[in-house]
Inverse folding.
């Protein structure tokens, strides 16, 4: 799962002068309307230049202009920081001029400024960023060998018709894997391979949404890209609160047609949907003819406890579409996900996939099929589970010892991150920015709450952090809270 | 470009019994309503089983049932053929029961039975199938080496943020390649990498179409998947005739918002859009604020003549979005295409790509970037151009010598296929079916004409046919015409 952040930067124009102007303009606008708050440390020019793939000179020029105009200030040895603009707040003329305002473009895309791109590029002493698995110990040599073999096979008998649902060996491997690991009820012909879970959501949005009519209920706080995908398709998206049992089913809108849940490890709070809520949710879907999308995004990593089966296992009425991904247990740039759709939905789903991009990359599919069939996936996941489990233990311990009750950990027993709540008096976005200046990278939960649901807390990812850096990072963080 | 055929087969249900029933039912329905005509030879059971990925028993059982019911008949040594149903034509109760009729599915997808899947699986003595390049001499070893190198680089410095528009080295390589080869005006930041040209069309449909409002003009005869993509998005799609200068611009609907053209090599007729029509089309787009989508699908292969630059080169008003693909010059299962969008469209396009599937496969992109940068693409294309040019020459010669004026070749000087017109009296679909029984695989053009435009002819692909088999194939074909 990608981890969105608070600030989108898009440099649409060609030419270094236009790019500098766009960068300057967008930063200036965000400073003026408060999205970039006073005291925020801006990325170093080299890091931002790398992340945006522009020359360092472009970034330096933009920063120089902002410095000259008083929007940012330089603190010797520490970097550039957003200035306090008390005197300039009346100047609200700045608006982001995105070329997407052209009326030839459909209205959603005209106003959509993009999913936020992480502002905190660069390296941190204590990096708790979300959404990234640790791929340093991924067996790349094995992958390379299997990939070469797949290419040799393909070169000998080029397949002429590739089903949109995906290559059969991979679908077989996935079906076996999730039948065993998650008790998902399926065979190879039920599996549809997609370019990541994101494409599965996108295809579901297409086949399920009638613009202006379809109502989609999502967890709130929840996963922003899913919300955007359904909004882009013209659905009405409604957030439903989450408590310590997961989605509060009784607060679902009665006319919900689609319900998106992350029952194994709620994103971002981490709670597990209780058995009672699972039953209630399925009953709701059955009686109202709704479809439940189960996003099982990082269920490979479970820690102790008795793992709950997938929600889909309880489904006797074909109301659940199960979506999974390999991006948390392989290396992150592979785009491989899958869906197990109920029979009534499958044909439309596969047709939508076919029209969207014919079929997924064949070599990658064949390589992954062999990787799974030869047992490498299971071995790698088993190894990573130990690595993450250790980090989780150390993190929980550090939060316990240093936390002084200031950080309430949300119980969870799976996944690649933990969430912790803070007292309402704490300004969490400001805390996160200050933490960045101390070399601590983490996200606030507040950005994930959309429809007025109040949540005040932070999330700690386990993918990037070295186990030796956890304790000191938490200690520093708690000092900032105080 | 995929090559659609006349008959879709979808087996949505799990379980061998349900699959057999679905296969039987769909074949029976198609025989009853005439889509499968009397005398058509059905695929051998083994071939169909492989193509549909079901057990051979399933196909045998379906065929046995059809045999018993009198829908097909067996001719010893020749296979199974659709029976003459003169006596059974009153039985019209059969309707295809697709599970996509569920009302939870948006209406387009409920009625969409899928793009047709080629019926003519198997091997032919004279295989003129469309849409497949000859990848037998593709330098797979070089690709494997570059792929291994890309993986090594990735394992050392896993990139954390991949732009939705594609990896920079690939965008640079594409920009250089098409600036030189097609005179397309662009730099790396103008290029957007997509999962094949099909995804570029799909993303364009999303960002350009307001359901029930947007009007899309397409060439007729034309390319069916493009039509379906825009219909799926809710656009009104209108076919505009093509003559020997290409799209008849003066017959464009005045309110067209989007115009799709294949100016280098019209699909499927093969004509080149004349300079006069190009100027007219761009003037139309400029004055009416329309966007032109230029699909340059197999322009790598030009034969003699002076190659015309891309239409996009003439565009001074940002009205053209240029779409290209690598699927005709690499191996067919790679999904790599690209778009060069005008600045006002680019941001929305990239945002739509981001929401659709984040970004394309990184390893494949890096491998292709190196493949292009090291000159392998140019070398391979140069080699294949000679191969296809020879086949084209032999084909033109055979058509000239055997044709007896019965086949009028449509002039074209590029691409992977040729079209030839037949006299109106010839029943081309029947001819194509009879040709299949004689080991000749080719497509009729008739299926590509949608809005009442009459076209009667056949298309010959250059991708699969061995040069030694051309002459005999054409001779046999012409005998069948007579």
């Amino acid at each position: 799962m990608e981890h969105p952040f608070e600030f989108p930067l898009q440099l649409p124009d060609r030419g270094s002068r236009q790019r500098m102007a766009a960068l300057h303009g967008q930063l200036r606008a965000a400073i003026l309307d408060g999205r970039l708050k006073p005291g925020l440390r801006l990325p170093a020019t080299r890091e931002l230049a790398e992340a945006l793939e522009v020359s360092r000179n472009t970034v330096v020029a933009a920063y120089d202009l902002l410095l000259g105009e008083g929007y940012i200030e330089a603190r010797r040895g520490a970097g550039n920081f957003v200035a306090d603009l008390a005197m300039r707040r009346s100047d609200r003329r700045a608006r982001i001029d995105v070329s997407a305002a052209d009326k030839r473009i459909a209205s959603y895309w005209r106003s959509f400024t993009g999913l936020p791109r992480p502002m905190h590029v660069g390296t941190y002493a204590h990096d708790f960023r979300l959404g990234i698995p640790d791929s340093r110990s991924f067996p790349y040599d094995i992958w390379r060998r299997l990939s070469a073999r797949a290419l040799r096979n393909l070169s000998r008998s080029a397949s002429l018709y590739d089903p949109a649902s995906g290559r059969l060996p991979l679908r077989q491997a996935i079906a076996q894997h999730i039948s065993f690991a998650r008790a998902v009820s399926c065979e190879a012909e039920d599996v549809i391979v997609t370019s990541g879970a994101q494409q599965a959501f996108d295809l579901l949005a297409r086949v399920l949404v009638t613009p202006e009519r379809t109502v989609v209920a999502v967890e709130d706080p929840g996963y922003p890209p899913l919300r955007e995908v359904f909004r882009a398709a013209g659905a009405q998206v409604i957030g439903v609160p989450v408590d310590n049992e997961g989605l509060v089913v009784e607060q679902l809108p009665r006319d919900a047609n689609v319900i998106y849940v992350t029952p194994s490890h709620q994103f971002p709070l981490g709670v597990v949907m209780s058995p009672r809520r699972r039953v209630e949710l399925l009953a709701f879907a059955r009686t109202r003819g709704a479809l439940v999308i189960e996003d099982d995004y990082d269920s490979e990593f479970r820690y102790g406890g008795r793992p709950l089966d997938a929600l889909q296992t309880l489904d006797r009425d074909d109301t659940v579409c199960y979506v999974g991904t390999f991006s948390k247990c392989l290396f992150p740039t592979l785009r491989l996900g899958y869906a197990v759709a109920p029979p009534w939905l499958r044909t439309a789903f596969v047709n939508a996939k076919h029209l969207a991009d014919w079929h997924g990359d064949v070599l990658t599919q064949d390589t992954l099929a062999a990787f799974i069939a030869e047992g490498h996936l299971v071995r790698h996941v088993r190894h990573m589970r130990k690595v993450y489990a250790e980090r989780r233990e150390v993190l929980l311990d550090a939060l316990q010892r240093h936390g002084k009750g200031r950080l309430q950990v949300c119980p969870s027993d799976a996944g690649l991150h933990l969430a912790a709540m803070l007292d309402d008096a704490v300004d969490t976005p400001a805390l996160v920015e200050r933490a960045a200046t101390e070399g601590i990278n983490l996200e606030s939960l507040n950005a994930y709450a959309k429809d007025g649901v109040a949540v005040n807390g932070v999330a700690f990812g386990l993918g990037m952090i070295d186990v030796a850096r956890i304790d000191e990072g938490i200690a520093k963080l708690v000092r900032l809270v105080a």
Remarks:
- Chain B has three domains: 19-89, 103-135+379-481, 158-378.
